[in-house]
Amino acid sequence: LINSFIIESELCFPHLNSSCRKNSRAPAVSMLIYVILSSMSLLTMVMNLMIIISISHFKKLHSPTNSLLLSLAVSDFLVGFLLVFQIILIDGCWFLGDIMCGIYFVLDYIFTAASIGTMVLISVDRYVAVCYPLHYPIKVTQYRVQVCVFLCWTISVFFHCMLLMDNIQQPGLYNTCVGECVVIIDFFGGIADVVCSFIAPVTVIVVLYVRIFVVAVSQARAMRSQVKGAIGQGFVQRVAAKKSEMKAAKALGVVVLVFLMCVCPYFCVTLESGDAVISASAAAFVMCLFYVNSFLNPLIYAFFYPWFRNCMKCIVTFQILKPGSSDANMG
Predict the structure, then answer these.
(1) Which of 43, 102, 139, 309 has the most beta carbons within 10 angstroms of its beta carbon?
(2) Element (H, E) at 279
(3) Where is the G-protein coupled receptors family 1 profile domain (predicted)?
(4) 156 CB-contact burial (10 Å; exposed 0-12 / middle 13-18 / buried 19+)
(5) Cβ within 8 Å of residue 19, ≥6 positions away
(6) CA gap 36, 214 in Å, rounded
(7) Torsion angle of the four alpha carbons 29, 32, 36, 39, in this order, in degrees rounded to the nearest 10
(8) Which residues pair with 10 in a beta bridge?
(9) 239: nearest Cα among 222, 263, 254, 251
(10) Are 29 and 8 in contact (CB under 8 A)?
(11) What is the pLDDT of residues 19-73, one digit of tens each?
């Protein structure tokens, strides 16, 4: 759609014969693209920053599940920041130098992998909560979740730094002209990346959520059959607890579904390329689609979670600055 508005080609660096060519568009079209992407970048960072502040500040939100949401919000916030660099690439020109190009792609790979890893952890968390509710408080503790999140980010950083080592050591090695931003991953590295960052995590997520759905349906039927003849405060509390877990599983299931819809095209393009060559300008659409996911997650939280809406209100009205606000109940 964007390319249909291209009217002519110009050099990224007019004074260099070896310069890449850029895609020139009508001023109105260029302004529209920049406004939309800039607004999305700003809103993504602001909304996810609110989630980070909310979960970090309010003590009653310090739960294992919310720790995972915090990790996801951090990665989404950083993705929103990277969208600024994607805006620079809209015209197919990179003006920040080869070193910044390598750093940009390394960070993009790391944040993507960290997001996918966090999604896997969220799926495991909901699986244990729904399928093994009695064991959940013992198996899923705050400390264990924090260790898992730390390992997720550490592995993402190590794996992709090794994967892109050639591009880090020799920035711009694979550029064909001045103003291009390209990284190349060898065949086996590309296969490893697709398997570890896409196929394996997505398989785990889908299998776990299918299992969650089956168990949720069976538990809902059991509750309906028992509630008719059951009385007592204890039973009511157990039913309320199960409904709460189901609601959380449903909300996070929507997050996972939206995530898969946004990230799958990126890896499909990688698989189709065969040689695992990712050009910044050629991959602009699928990368922006992944960035859209980081923008949508806070909106999903706002729709499903009352605590997030309450926290946003508290932050916007500066109630968060009052003494003792960290002990407030945002549920």
Answers:
(1) 102
(2) strand 277-279
(3) 47-301
(4) buried
(5) 11, 12, 13, 177, 178, 179
(6) 40
(7) 140
(8) 22
(9) 222
(10) no
(11) 888 766 677 777 887 888 888 889 989 989 999 998 998 888 888 989 999 999 9
